[in-house]
Amino acid sequence: MSENEVSTVKEGVVVTMDYRLEVDGTEIDSGPIQFLQGYGNIIPGLESEVEGMTLGEEKQVLVKAEDAYGNYDEDLEIEVPLTSFPEDFEIKLGHPMRLQDGEGHVFTGVAMAISDELVTLNLNHPLAGKDLLFTTKVTELRPATPLELEQGRLASACSACASGDCSDC
Looking at the domain that runs over 74-122, which CATH code has it been given? Predict the structure, then answer.
Protein backbone atom coordinates (compact mmCIF):
# COMPACT_ATOMS: atom_id res chain seq x y z
CA MET A 1 0.00 0.00 0.00
CA SER A 2 1.46 3.40 -0.97
CA GLU A 3 1.66 6.21 1.58
CA ASN A 4 -1.24 8.05 -0.11
CA GLU A 5 -3.60 5.09 0.24
CA VAL A 6 -5.91 5.00 3.23
CA SER A 7 -7.73 1.91 4.45
CA THR A 8 -9.21 3.08 7.78
CA VAL A 9 -11.52 5.91 8.78
CA LYS A 10 -9.53 8.29 11.00
CA GLU A 11 -9.10 12.00 11.56
CA GLY A 12 -8.01 13.85 8.42
CA VAL A 13 -9.43 11.25 6.02
CA VAL A 14 -12.12 12.05 3.46
CA VAL A 15 -14.78 9.37 3.75
CA THR A 16 -17.38 8.45 1.15
CA MET A 17 -20.10 6.38 2.73
CA ASP A 18 -23.38 4.94 1.51
CA TYR A 19 -26.07 5.20 4.17
CA ARG A 20 -29.72 4.63 4.87
CA LEU A 21 -31.33 6.60 7.71
CA GLU A 22 -34.38 5.34 9.58
CA VAL A 23 -36.37 7.18 12.23
CA ASP A 24 -39.08 5.30 14.14
CA GLY A 25 -38.83 2.41 11.66
CA THR A 26 -39.31 4.60 8.56
CA GLU A 27 -36.56 5.33 6.04
CA ILE A 28 -36.28 9.10 5.73
CA ASP A 29 -33.04 9.52 3.79
CA SER A 30 -30.40 7.56 1.91
CA GLY A 31 -27.55 7.94 -0.48
CA PRO A 32 -23.87 8.60 -0.47
CA ILE A 33 -22.30 11.21 1.79
CA GLN A 34 -18.77 12.53 1.75
CA PHE A 35 -17.15 14.23 4.75
CA LEU A 36 -13.86 15.01 6.46
CA GLN A 37 -13.54 12.70 9.46
CA GLY A 38 -12.70 14.22 12.84
CA TYR A 39 -13.82 17.79 12.08
CA GLY A 40 -17.48 17.71 13.13
CA ASN A 41 -18.79 17.65 9.56
CA ILE A 42 -21.43 15.06 10.50
CA ILE A 43 -23.40 14.49 13.70
CA PRO A 44 -21.16 13.53 16.63
CA GLY A 45 -22.73 10.14 17.33
CA LEU A 46 -22.24 8.96 13.77
CA GLU A 47 -18.74 10.41 13.47
CA SER A 48 -17.54 8.56 16.58
CA GLU A 49 -19.08 5.27 15.42
CA VAL A 50 -17.50 5.31 11.93
CA GLU A 51 -14.03 6.01 13.39
CA GLY A 52 -11.91 2.91 12.72
CA MET A 53 -14.17 1.42 10.03
CA THR A 54 -12.34 -0.01 7.04
CA LEU A 55 -12.89 0.33 3.32
CA GLY A 56 -15.88 -1.82 2.34
CA GLU A 57 -17.03 -2.33 5.94
CA GLU A 58 -20.74 -2.20 6.70
CA LYS A 59 -22.18 -1.24 10.07
CA GLN A 60 -25.52 -0.42 11.64
CA VAL A 61 -25.30 2.56 14.00
CA LEU A 62 -27.96 3.74 16.45
CA VAL A 63 -27.36 7.39 17.32
CA LYS A 64 -29.28 8.62 20.36
CA ALA A 65 -30.98 12.02 20.05
CA GLU A 66 -28.50 13.73 22.37
CA ASP A 67 -25.63 12.66 20.06
CA ALA A 68 -27.49 13.68 16.91
CA TYR A 69 -29.60 16.86 16.77
CA GLY A 70 -30.17 17.12 20.50
CA ASN A 71 -33.22 16.65 22.66
CA TYR A 72 -36.40 18.52 21.81
CA ASP A 73 -36.37 21.91 23.57
CA GLU A 74 -39.80 23.44 24.26
CA ASP A 75 -38.06 26.79 24.87
CA LEU A 76 -37.37 26.84 21.12
CA GLU A 77 -41.09 27.20 20.47
CA ILE A 78 -41.46 30.98 20.33
CA GLU A 79 -44.12 33.52 19.47
CA VAL A 80 -43.24 36.27 17.00
CA PRO A 81 -45.46 39.22 16.06
CA LEU A 82 -46.99 38.75 12.62
CA THR A 83 -45.82 42.30 11.84
CA SER A 84 -42.20 41.02 12.02
CA PHE A 85 -42.69 39.33 8.66
CA PRO A 86 -42.65 41.22 5.35
CA GLU A 87 -46.14 41.67 3.93
CA ASP A 88 -45.35 39.49 0.91
CA PHE A 89 -43.81 36.66 3.01
CA GLU A 90 -45.82 33.44 2.70
CA ILE A 91 -46.14 31.56 5.99
CA LYS A 92 -47.11 27.92 5.54
CA LEU A 93 -48.03 25.90 8.60
CA GLY A 94 -45.79 22.89 9.11
CA HIS A 95 -43.26 23.86 6.43
CA PRO A 96 -39.65 24.89 7.12
CA MET A 97 -38.92 28.53 6.37
CA ARG A 98 -35.60 30.37 6.10
CA LEU A 99 -35.85 33.34 8.44
CA GLN A 100 -33.62 36.24 9.44
CA ASP A 101 -33.60 38.08 12.74
CA GLY A 102 -32.91 41.78 13.35
CA GLU A 103 -29.15 41.17 13.64
CA GLY A 104 -29.03 39.38 10.27
CA HIS A 105 -28.73 35.82 11.63
CA VAL A 106 -30.34 33.32 9.26
CA PHE A 107 -32.09 30.28 10.75
CA THR A 108 -34.84 27.80 9.97
CA GLY A 109 -38.19 27.72 11.70
CA VAL A 110 -41.49 25.92 11.23
CA ALA A 111 -44.77 27.76 11.77
CA MET A 112 -46.88 25.80 14.23
CA ALA A 113 -49.76 28.29 14.55
CA ILE A 114 -50.82 31.64 13.13
CA SER A 115 -53.25 34.10 14.69
CA ASP A 116 -54.22 37.65 13.72
CA GLU A 117 -51.25 38.95 15.71
CA LEU A 118 -48.75 36.15 16.37
CA VAL A 119 -46.90 33.33 14.65
CA THR A 120 -45.77 30.42 16.83
CA LEU A 121 -42.47 29.11 15.48
CA ASN A 122 -40.64 25.90 16.28
CA LEU A 123 -36.89 26.50 16.02
CA ASN A 124 -35.87 22.91 16.88
CA HIS A 125 -34.18 20.85 14.19
CA PRO A 126 -36.83 18.57 12.62
CA LEU A 127 -34.97 15.53 13.99
CA ALA A 128 -34.46 16.94 17.51
CA GLY A 129 -35.52 14.38 20.10
CA LYS A 130 -35.27 11.49 17.63
CA ASP A 131 -32.97 8.47 17.78
CA LEU A 132 -31.45 7.80 14.35
CA LEU A 133 -30.67 4.36 12.91
CA PHE A 134 -28.03 4.43 10.18
CA THR A 135 -27.06 1.52 7.96
CA THR A 136 -23.63 2.46 6.60
CA LYS A 137 -20.97 1.19 4.20
CA VAL A 138 -17.59 2.85 3.67
CA THR A 139 -17.11 2.98 -0.12
CA GLU A 140 -14.09 5.24 -0.54
CA LEU A 141 -11.30 6.71 1.56
CA ARG A 142 -8.62 9.23 0.66
CA PRO A 143 -6.26 11.57 2.46
CA ALA A 144 -7.58 15.11 2.81
CA THR A 145 -5.84 17.87 0.90
CA PRO A 146 -3.91 20.53 2.83
CA LEU A 147 -6.70 23.04 2.03
CA GLU A 148 -9.39 20.67 3.35
CA LEU A 149 -7.40 20.16 6.56
CA GLU A 150 -6.87 23.91 6.95
CA GLN A 151 -10.58 24.65 6.41
CA GLY A 152 -11.76 21.66 8.46
CA ARG A 153 -14.19 20.65 5.72
CA LEU A 154 -14.29 19.50 2.14
CA ALA A 155 -13.43 22.14 -0.40
CA SER A 156 -16.55 23.26 -2.26
CA ALA A 157 -16.87 22.79 -6.00
CA CYS A 158 -15.95 26.43 -6.49
CA SER A 159 -12.99 26.54 -4.10
CA ALA A 160 -10.70 27.47 -6.99
CA CYS A 161 -12.44 30.82 -7.52
CA ALA A 162 -9.85 33.56 -7.56
CA SER A 163 -12.47 36.13 -6.55
CA GLY A 164 -13.31 34.42 -3.27
CA ASP A 165 -16.96 35.07 -4.11
CA CYS A 166 -18.48 31.76 -5.19
CA SER A 167 -21.54 33.50 -6.61
CA ASP A 168 -19.35 34.12 -9.67
CA CYS A 169 -18.76 30.39 -10.25
Answer: 2.40.10.330
